[in-house]
Amino acid sequence: MTEQLEAAVIAAQDAVTKQGDTVRSLKASAKEGKVQKNDVDAAIVKLQELKLDLDAKQKELEKIAGGKSSQSREAFRAVLAGVLERRLFYIPSYKIYNGVAGFYDYGPPGCAIKANITQTWRQHFVLEENMLEVECPAVTPEIVLKASGHVDRFTDFMVKDVKTGECYRADHLLEGTLEKLLEDKKNPLTAEQTKEARDLLSTVGELKEDTLGAALTKYACKAPDTGNDISAPFAFNLMFKTSIGPRGDMVGYLRPETAQGIFVNFKDLLYYNGQRLPFAAAQIGNSYRNEISPRSGLLRVREFTQAEIEHFVNPDDKSHPKFSLVADLEPLLYSRDFQMGDEKKPHPIRLGDAVSKGIIANETLAYFIGRTWLFFKRIGINPQRMRFRQHLLHEMAHYANDCWDGEIETSYGWVECVGLADRSAYDLNAHAKMSKVDLKAHETYPEPRMEEELKIVVASKEVGQAFKKDAKTVTEHLQSMNECDAMELKAKLEAGSGDITTIDGQTFTVTPKMVDIKKELVRKTGRNFTPAVIEPSFGIGRIMYSMFEHAFYTRGEANDAGSDDARGVFRFTPLVAPVKATVFPLLQKAELNEVANKVSTSLTAAGLSNIVDTTGTTVGKRYARTDEIGVPFAITVDYQVQTDNTVTLRERDSMAQVRIPVPEIAGVVKSLVDGVSSWLEVQGKYPAQQAAANSEVA
Amino acid sequence: MTEQLEAAVIAAQDAVTKQGDTVRSLKASAKEGKVQKNDVDAAIVKLQELKLDLDAKQKELEKIAGGKSSQSREAFRAVLAGVLERRLFYIPSYKIYNGVAGFYDYGPPGCAIKANITQTWRQHFVLEENMLEVECPAVTPEIVLKASGHVDRFTDFMVKDVKTGECYRADHLLEGTLEKLLEDKKNPLTAEQTKEARDLLSTVGELKEDTLGAALTKYACKAPDTGNDISAPFAFNLMFKTSIGPRGDMVGYLRPETAQGIFVNFKDLLYYNGQRLPFAAAQIGNSYRNEISPRSGLLRVREFTQAEIEHFVNPDDKSHPKFSLVADLEPLLYSRDFQMGDEKKPHPIRLGDAVSKGIIANETLAYFIGRTWLFFKRIGINPQRMRFRQHLLHEMAHYANDCWDGEIETSYGWVECVGLADRSAYDLNAHAKMSKVDLKAHETYPEPRMEEELKIVVASKEVGQAFKKDAKTVTEHLQSMNECDAMELKAKLEAGSGDITTIDGQTFTVTPKMVDIKKELVRKTGRNFTPAVIEPSFGIGRIMYSMFEHAFYTRGEANDAGSDDARGVFRFTPLVAPVKATVFPLLQKAELNEVANKVSTSLTAAGLSNIVDTTGTTVGKRYARTDEIGVPFAITVDYQVQTDNTVTLRERDSMAQVRIPVPEIAGVVKSLVDGVSSWLEVQGKYPAQQAAANSEVA
């Protein structure tokens, strides 16, 4: 019932948005004399009816759902999406060609906010931590992604509609089917069936090909669009493939993550850093994943901006010199224990305690969790709606030591926006092996140490006599044994069993006389080692979308009957707001415009982006328009400026207004935007605006 | 002779660079006790010998070449390239896998400079001009690039080595062959042959397939690496191709330019701008061209950053409201006339005069030439070494009205860094046709006008009787005639000749009774039209590389025998410098380090990127290191700080030093970086540093 009503609300909202568009375009045409006034009026009446209908449906939904949850997630999202698209925050790409799923364009406010978030990220991480920033190409030769494992393993399981050939993600399909079964009140599952379905649901993402196939068959999954049968699941590589150069013989891919560009440059970066560890490198850039069926707007797209950090450390010392700066923060941690416990809830935990109790594996990982938490707060994410979720053991790659996802709550549920992983030495080892280039760092011990070293001495005479022309092969084989193999051979030889060694299919019997294997204590002044890497990886688009949801709210009802302005507001922090201030002359008069332009010039000189709105509409409507793109401050120039040279300054969320002398206005806005002074302070210092002329309903 | 000597200088420089690397790495190993001191000394002696050799060769070259031109371009470039790569400004991508031609990574200083240039561009163009910034994906469906013409025509001619299959750009190959022939003193060409070769050389880039093939045959061009025969030239599309989605049936390309993303969004952007013209949209992003044989470092790469503007105007009014702000600038203009004249030299011309004399087609194009000139100056391009070259008529696309290239002089010659083109309505018309979406703007006349309008009235009775079931086809055909066809038909009918009209292969005879064609004067309040577009398109990597060349110089000789620091200096403007200041404690002492950290914190708080260099090397060497990445200001903390709380501030290019109180240092550097005060002013205000302790040779 709720579900149907929600769908009805969304449809009604949609109808209101569309009719709003119609009214707007009719009004524009009417101005040009192309449309009759009564056609416009009729459209406005229709719009009012649709709004009443929406209102009724929303109230009905509230009655059923009751309380806070009445703000249906889907309805909220539909209103938000309407504003985001209408004001060109972002729109589907290639719209005039009917679009391509998974691609979005950012329009002016989206672009500005994205630049602000990215710049804040650079300030917060790269500059404050002295990271080495790099920029590498997206087009990547196959060998790099072969080494990293992406060519072989960066896949999702896909099924096809056997009749239409349409493709679906196998895990999403199974998930959908299971959720429907579990929610089906008419044909309830038995307790046993319910448990089985729930267990399967919690591991859908990690199923192997055969188990996944069996489950799809067992639950009789069908193609959702047609109800047709589906194929067995098969692996589909998510990388966009291309060819580099004119010969056509060099396979390339668009990078699926920016990280590999840092790993392949490790040697040069280490040199740049004076051969010292730890250090971090960072990269902001676009990555590409050819998703099987993109959905959820900006949350799952095929081209997206990542900001990744690779922090290289000595694997034996993952302490962080600045950890004390975040040790007292208490982010919501959703540890493995909390996830497996009965309550299934995250709890605020002091990061210092999380490390000392072993909840988070090391200081460096915890340091980045703390810094991420601060970053989220800084750009306007609600701290009550972000958490750090630890990967369960079966979710982690075999080489990973510990992984946490920075998750933000949205209308889609908890969304993974940041991955923080201790990846050990996996990536550098993989590239060292494939490229045959040494990717090690050197550590000089504070003072020399005595360390055990493996010594393998081959008796060339004995080996030569025994194996003749193969002597060289056997000698090299023996000398290149790793510690484990060598000690095993030593044990066998000491047990007198001799050893049959196979090299390239040939068999050789080694005797104790041929080789001497021992461990010696050697004085060492240092060692070479492959650094471990702690990787915080940020999805900028997901963070941005989540921030949109946390910043958006609606205010009041439409304020005059024919109004087609939605009353949505974004409470963007001044830091990320696309425009810092708008300037309105109260009326379209030259003398007011002149002051407005003067104010605008002084704002620009102070480095504050601003727009002058000289349209003749009411100030209330112009405020609504500026609220809708989250401009924090609005300056109105009215006739009082001719008496006392003051203008009004309005704060977006409180809607309160004060009067400020023109020469001071840029300085006041600048101090508010930089966070040097608060709105309360400004209200204390300057007189409140009393008159109704500039009020919201004007 | 000069050529050989230049090659020798480059080789010698190379040897010095390599030996310098060896010395550096030996020194590092010696510190760890892995290498003997005398091995290091031997390497240093070798380095000194190589430097002497280089010196001798350079002097010899100077003697031959004489005067200023003695600074051989190639030798200059080799020294510059050594510094750029060693200090990680940029390096070939995927080095550990032996690289892939045409791809570069930016390291920390390169990244910082690129971010500064891009940010300056955004400030200079987007913010100061209130442009609408957008960000669109690089992955583009085929239909978009089919409409723009890239799928069919974005090609270069390629030839293959018939034996090895190696690929070459046909025009480059012909160019190289012609240049060699013209320079060959042993077998000089006749006057006639010389003229023919020169004429061909000047049009190589515009040759068609057959003429190009004939020329390659005539001049017996061979594969340069092997001397083998080459294939006939054939067109190779320069776009990277890929496939979108899992079905494999949607062809996509990586965009070869960012502009198309703006054109496909025109309708929404016009709406966003309140349906008003003119307005400009801008996009900064990466573009991709699968070059046949990339060369010339950053100048011809396969993935590069563009910053493009599409300024939409009424085709009947290309004036620019802010033109007066640039009218008095006098950039070097290399107009069509100057290029075709005898002198073949650009001249400084006032932009106002260039428009009034018709040298530049319109104000808007000239406005952007002026703004581009200012931008170049702002980021440190030498105004004497930049010019605007007008396209010759045969270089322009048929639809273009006027095109100018912003060119910068480098060691590679004049490099096209910006293209400024009046593209008329070509792009919007192309997308309107392909997408069938109306991409027109509306203009309301200041007052209604009487305009001629074509009226075609079909007499349905006559047509119906004559053509029966085909009546509808004929009627539609007649009604949809354009003005030209209609007037032609009218003339024929009036001449009494009747008309035989062919529709889809069928023939119909139209008589005067069937159709009435006339032009009527109609009262019009406005009109719909496709805007023209003026496109300034910037190649960020090319501009950046050219700026590197203009900023680089060398200073003095290596200052102590064993020094392995090159004495290169970048005179970056503070605006683009990767780091604004370095801070050195004179000695590795806790009390000096503490002050240095305090100074660094105050710089960071003022928003100034800075690094603290606490290595124990001499201050002279540390100055050299910081000069080499173009840091404009260096602050040294010596023991005088304990007496009077002052530190020294050194300006990079004059190397002059003043003493400044610690509490004032951040403010002084900030005012210098922001251009609020000059170094001369600072020198006037603070006492000069006298002591030798901090001098360059310490």
UniProtKB/TrEMBL annotation, chains A, B:
PROSITE patterns: AA_TRNA_LIGASE_II, WHEP_TRS_2. GO terms for molecular function: ATP binding; glycine-tRNA ligase activity; transferase activity. Its main location: cytoplasm. Keywords: Aminoacyl-tRNA synthetase, ATP-binding, Coiled coil, Cytoplasm, Ligase, Nucleotide-binding, Protein biosynthesis, Transferase. It catalyses: tRNA(Gly) + glycine + ATP = glycyl-tRNA(Gly) + AMP + diphosphate. Its EC number is 6.1.1.14. The keyword Mitochondrion does not apply. CDD domains: GlyRS-like_core (cd00774), GlyRS_anticodon (cd00858). GO terms for biological process: mitochondrial glycyl-tRNA aminoacylation. GO terms for cellular component: mitochondrion. The keyword Cytoplasm applies. Residues 40-67 form a coiled coil. Residues 79-574 form the Aminoacyl-transfer RNA synthetases class-II family profile domain. It is found in: Cytoplasm. Residues 8-68 form the WHEP-TRS domain. Belongs to the class-II aminoacyl-tRNA synthetase family. Homodimer. This is glycine--tRNA ligase. It comes from Chlamydomonas eustigma.
